[in-house]
Amino acid sequence: MSKVFVVGGSGRVATDLIKDLVENGNKVVAGSRNPEKIIKLDGVTAVKLDLHAEMEEIAKIMDGCDVVYFVAGSRGKDLLQTDAFGAVKTMMAAERDDIERYIMLSSMYALQPQMWSKYKALADITDYNIAKFFADNYLIHNTKLASTIVQPASLTEEPGTGMVTLGDGKDTTNPIPDVAKVLADTLKYKDTIGHIIMMRSGKTPIDDALSNVGDPVAYNNAGLAD
């Protein structure tokens, strides 16, 4: 069992993620600017978290946790201070608190700008992908965190299937419950550390996919931005 801090705890993905983390036997501290909107479950503590705050304040709120999930998103309204630098401050805070494990919700091809114009769904969220590009790069190059970056295709508010395809490929979609399940179950598999996990809807059970991720590809040799 881990004590998990969820950044962006009142969001769409976070709600399902928190359910899955608790079901997996974890204790959850969920942070949001609107803690009253965080799902109420046994084993879940809601706290007020403002990503505009200083890093030291964020570190105090996260202190005592074993894992950090970043699933916050401003939905285009506050990209710099939430999606980009807000994420960076939580990474700094995790290192300040000696929290080693960090799991980031990102976006398909966020580290490959050359791909954005090839898919309308990505072209429509270019500013978001720019924010994630810098946040993901900081996580990889400027921290020593045991990190995993999950990069789903477009999110849809549909029932989960429990099935995925991992890796790059044609731009498709992901039901939010499946994204949340991949995020939650990533914590169960240490082999996911160091991975950038691209995910799309597919036909492989999530547990099977995550238990066979293989060795991480060296970042600079993965066709990604340096």
Describe the structure.
- This protein is of the alpha/beta class.
- Helix content is 33%, strand content 22%.
- It contains seven helices and eleven strands.
- Helix 3 (79-96) packs parallel to helix 5.
- The radius of gyration is 16 Å and the shape is globular.
- The protein starts with a strand and ends in a 16-residue tail after the last helix.
- Residues 8-188 form the NAD(P)-binding domain.
- It comes from Limosilactobacillus avistercoris.
What's the gist of this structure?
By secondary structure, this protein is of the alpha/beta class.
Task: Present the secondary structure layout.
Blueprint: E1 3-7, H1 12-23, E2 27-32, E3 44-48, H2 55-62, E4 67-70, H3 79-96, E5 101-105, H4 120-123, H5 126-141, E6 146-152, E7 154-156, E8 163-166, E9 173-175, H6 176-186, E10 196-201, E11 204-205, H7 206-210
Parallel strand pairs: 1-2, 1-4, 2-3, 4-5, 5-6, 6-10, 7-9
Antiparallel strand pairs: 8-10, 8-11
Largest sheet: 9 strands, mixed
Number of helices: 7
What is the C-alpha radius of gyration, as a whole number of Å?
Answer: 16 Å
Q: Mean pLDDT across all residues, rounded?
A: 92
H-E order: EHEEHEHEHHEEEEHEEH
Helix content: 25-40%
Shape: globular
Distance between the termini: 36 Å
Which percent band covers the strand fraction?
15-25%
